[in-house]
Amino acid sequence: KFRVGFRHLSFSSIPAAAVRSWRVFNMFEFIKAVYRLLVGTTKYAYLQRTKKVGHLSDRPTVTLSEGKVCGISVNLPNGKQYHSFQGIPYARAPVGKLRFAPPVPVEKFDLEVVDCARECEPCTQVDLYFRWRIIGEEGPLCLNVYTPTLPSDQNTNPQFPVMVYIHGGGFESGSGSTFLHDPIHLLQEDVIVVLMNYRLGPLGFLSFPEMGIAGNAGLKDQLLALKWVKRNIAQFGGDPNNVTLFGQSAGSWSVYLHYLSLNSRQYFNRAICQSGVVCT
C-alpha cells in the first residue's frame, strides 16, 4: 500500500519471496561491484609500476630453447627491482585440429625476439562477473615469469627456488593474470614465480571418446607448462630441481592430481594445496 509521502511508503503488499529475491539479486550486484573495484584498483596499480617499457634493446632479454624473449624491469613497493616476462607462449594455439587435443609445444618462435612486456589474453571462458559475456581467445597458451635477478645481471649465477602457481575458477574461469595474482610479496623473498594459463570449460575438459576427444586437455596444458619450466627456468636464474607447485581452489585440485600422477611428479619437488584436494 502506498500513502502520500515517501516517509509512509509501505511494501507490505509485496510477496515475501519477491523481497528475498530482490535482496539476493542486490547482494550479487554488490559483490560484482566490489570485485570490479578491486580488479580495477589492482590493474591501475600494476600499470603504474609497468608503464615505462622502453625499447627492446634496453630491456632484459633471455635466450630460451625456442628463441629470445624480452621482458621489462619493475620496482617493488620496497624499492627492490625484479624482471617481468609476460605472455611467453609455451604451446601452439589450440585451434582447428588442435582443438580438444593435447597441447603441442612451441618449438621455435616466429619472431627473432618475442616482446613479453604485456600479458596475453586469457583462455576462452564465460566471464561470470561481467554480465556473463564470452571473453578471452583461443590463442597460444602462455605463461608469465617473474625473477629477482637474471644470470646476465653482473655475471651472476643465481639458483633461486621456483614457485609455479595454478589459478582457480572451477576449471571454467580465471587466468594466470598478474591483476588477480600479483606476485610482488613472494618476489620480496628472492624466489621466481611462474603463472600459467590453461584451457577451461568444454575447451579444456570435454571428454568424448567416441569422437576422439580424450578429455582433460586443461590438465595436459598444465603438465606441458611444468615441462617448459623444467627446461627453461635456469635461464631466468631459477633452480629446476627446486620447484614448488601450488594452487588455489580448482588450481589446488590440479596440484593434487599432478602430485598423484607419475607423469607429473618428476617436474616439481613439493606441492601446496590451498582450498581443495581430490577425495575418493
From TrEMBL:
Superkingdom as given in the UniProt entry: Eukaryota
Carboxylesterase type B domain sequence ranges: 59-278
Classification via Pfam families: COesterase
Keywords: Disulfide bond, Glycoprotein, Hydrolase, Serine esterase
EC number: 3.1.1.-
Transmembrane segments: none
InterPro entries with a match to the protein in the record: AB_hydrolase_fold, CarbesteraseB, Carboxylesterase_B_AS, Lipase_GDXG_HIS_AS, Type-B_Carboxylest/Lipase
Protein name per its UniProtKB record: Carboxylic ester hydrolase
Organism in which the protein naturally occurs: Culex pipiens
